[in-house]
Amino acid sequence: MSQELETIKPNEKDFNILNLGPTHPATHGVFQNVLKMDGEIIHDSESTIGYIHRAFEKIAEHRPYYQITPLTDRLNYCSSPINNMGWHMTVEKLLGVQTPKRVDYMRIIIMELARISDHIVCNSVIGVDAGALTGFTYIFQWREKIYDIYEEICGARLTTNIGRIGGMERDFNKECIKKIRSFLNDFPKAFAEFSSLLERNRIFMDRVINVGKISAERALNYGFTGPNLRAAGVDYDVRVMNPYCSYQDFDFIIPVGTNGDTYDRFMVRQQEILESLKIIKNALDNLPEGKFFADVPEFFLPPKDEVYNNMEALIWHFKIVMGEADVPVGEVYHAVEGGNGELGFYLVSDGGRAPFRLHFRRPCFIYYQAFPEMVKGSMLSDAIITLSSMNVIAGELDA
Amino acid sequence: MEINNSYLLAEIKTKFESDVINCDEQFGLLSVELSRTKILELLEYLFQHSDLQMQFLTDICGVHYPQKSGNEFGVVYHLHSLINNIRLRIKCFMPTDDTNIQSVSNLFSAANWMERETFDFYGINFTGHPNLKRILNVDEMDYFPMRKEYPLEDGTRTDKDDTYFGR
Amino acid sequence: MSNVQDIQLKKAPPGLEGSGFFATKLEQAIGLARANSIWPLPFATSCCGIEFMATMASNYDLARFGSERLSFSPRQADLLMVMGTIAKKMGPVVKQVYLQMAEPRWVIAVGACASSGGIFDTYSVLQGIDKVVPVDVYVPGCPPRPEQIIDGIIKIQELIKNESLRRRNSIKYKELLASYGIQ
Q1: Which of A166, A255, A395, C17 has the most CB atoms at less than 10 Å from its CB?
Q2: Do A232 and A356 belong to one domain?
Q3: Domain tally, chain A
Q4: Does any domain span residue A27?
Q5: C59 contacts on A by Cβ (under 8 Å)
Q6: Which parts of chain A register pLDDT below 70?
Q7: Which phi and psi angles does C82 have, rounded to 5°?
Q8: Between A and B, how many residue pairs show a Cβ–Cβ distance under 8 A?
Q9: How many structural domains are present in chain B?
Q10: Per-residue pLDDT averaged across C148-155, rounded?
Q11: Quick check: C142 pLDDT over 80?
Q12: What's the pLDDT at A220?
């Protein structure tokens, strides 16, 4: 029997076409993959995206600078504060605004919290796709704690809209500092339990090691950045290569993988969570005193109580909202290390109140195109887990 | 040999002296305007250059300047040399009636979707691209939405009263 | 640990009660059963989907409202929860999923984008899913908080409880579907 089977070579008509998506429960977002299957093995695949294309770049050409912050929230909604701050820093670079150290440190605390919450989503979902739901339900409580901190800072949970161009809209209050401290205290213990559920779990390891491999060379050629590139063994991190927002003040390790497989991507994210905790602790301990905004009344929206009680603040508020502040002409590219990699903003200003052109370099969009190459020759269930380990966020993918 | 922007520009100019139309430096990032026929050649040269090794393509995007007659459409490339940690921006311009430029997707796999996106938004035709079709918008769309002459809204919104928006 | 008194029975519908029996309308009894065992189909596309994950997870625990089991197959689902922006490319897919669901079916539009297009009044976004499928409950917010999503589910439960068994055969309902081009 087996000898007979060997003589049958798979030819074109023996392949099955399988539609994975756009609403498949295991794809965590809306992207379609048309897979050419040889039994359970993926022979070839083609991705279709654009199912939630929302035209961010076109909207951005019609909105004043400060109104673009809410748009950036909705790019990578798992770590929206990083997008907010990235945008603010881009505009500050264009305007030549120097932010005080306190602002930088506050931003770092928030951005690293966002990174933790982003990685928690990704890693717990890898667990879910491998059949381990426990970690997900367990660690998601801790993500809620991060949301509590956001709420204390800005009032929102997910689409945070934190900060202003030139600083923060308000200072950290006592409750917020307390919540961050208690998070730093309690989270490592819970996280260790989460890690012990998966990291050295034989079943999980068998499921993810050597799955969805990509070499460092191919990853670079595909424009990978962030944890996915580091899992392949390239230590490229924007925070270190082009330090922004006083990241040079902090000492942290860039975890690097060796194989570029799903397990490495998982482990790199795990380690980054620990590094982020270290950075937050460091920043909170050394949080400098001072103002929580830069001294640029022509761009920084003044606090509301001043607007109501101070003539000058009211005038500035009016001027900023009506778009009468002068913006220099120029082009600027600014990159931050987002949850998924190098999140870049290419801004062309013609001096108007809205950008002439704003392009987002979205890491998801760029590395998702490697998916067909990564899953070629692997099993269907491996494709699912590869997809979740790449952490493709639909909002960022489609813009 | 310190690798900085002036060295980078000099290295580009030794080979592409006549093709560099313009160059400037803003916020520490060297920006070179290049005649569009040479783009693939330049990227290959920078990729293989033994010192520079610009082997990471950060981004490709389009820009539309309706006022610049003869140079309406621009394609902007951002390159990064991870070895030397130096970035470079290259811009190529083209007129409305001839929006062709060489595809670099054979050199950088990452360029494949970036070029498709640019085509989708601006209708820039990347010659030599293996699969140049719309990526984000529906295939039936008959215009290029990011061009400045097209509006943001499509007018299907019914619950918005424009009198409150001062329009 | 939880006290036995914490566990409450659902309020019974109005009816006749005596020793050893309770009589009510069949409609009411079925409504009660349906309302507390909804199988939602999460059609999560973007940000609101992440908030739905939070709603499902341990802190907010949607299972308390009888929606323990998410049905990822439209065939077995009772409630279509559309969460997030629906682009024009996605519109036909939403409709297809809706068509595949069996009656009785309910739809809840979670978030500003699904309800009206939200901040994305652009060429590529469908301005509310009610352009392609009929919607029962709209949940505002960008994104709504988990409490709001739960509130939407409770509203749906009220609808289900009080729905006539014959509603789906009524001319008005058929006309509604016909206005969406659904037979």
Answers
A1: A395
A2: yes
A3: 2
A4: yes
A5: 140-141, 144
A6: 1-13, 26
A7: -95, 115
A8: 88
A9: 1
A10: 94
A11: yes
A12: 94
3-state secondary structure chain B: CCCCHHHHHHHHHHHHCCCEEEEEEECCEEEEEECHHHHHHHHHHHHHCCCCCCCEEEEEEEEECCCCCCCCEEEEEEEEECCCCEEEEEEEEECCCCCEEECCCCCCCCHHHHHHHHHHHHCCEEECCCCCCCCCCCCCCCCCCCCCCCCCCCCCCCCCCHHHHCC
What architecture is the C32-156+169-179 domain classified under in CATH? 3-Layer(aba) Sandwich (3.40)
CATH code, domain with A133? 1.10.645.10
- Chain C residues within an 8 Å CB radius of B151: 123
Q: Where are the alpha helices (DSSP H) in chain A?
A: 2-7, 56-60, 69-73, 80-95, 101-129, 133-154, 174-198, 202-208, 216-221, 226-231, 238-241, 262-285, 304-309, 311-322, 363-367, 371-375, 380-390, 394-398
Structure tokens at A193: 């339990």
Q: Do A394 and C125 touch (CB under 8 A)?
A: no
Q: Which of A236-240, B129-133, C8-12 has the lowest mean pLDDT?
A: C8-12
For residue B20, tell me if it sits in a domain. Answer: yes
A18 - beta bridge partners? Answer: A35
Tell if the CB–CB gap between A333 and B112 is shorter than 8 Å: no
Here the CATH number for the domain that contains residue B66 is 3.30.460.80
**In a shared domain, residues A149 and A222:** yes
Tell me the nearest-neighbour CA distance from A348 into chain B, angstroms.
Answer: 9
Among chain B residues, the shortest Cα distance to A93 is held by B27
Is residue B57 within 8 Å of residue A223, measured between CB atoms? yes
A158, A228: one domain: yes
Q: Mean pLDDT of all residues in chain B?
A: 90
Locate the domains of chain C by residue range: 32-156+169-179
| Element spanning C33, H or E | helix C26-35
Q: Is A242 on the interface with B (CB under 8 A)?
A: yes
pLDDT tens digits, residue range B22-56? 999 999 999 999 998 999 999 999 999 988 889 99
Q: Can you give the pLDDT at residue A2?
A: 41
Indicate the residue of B78, B137, B152 with minimum beta-carbon distance to A333: B78
pLDDT in tens, A204-257: 999 999 999 999 999 999 999 999 999 999 999 999 999 999 999 999 999 999
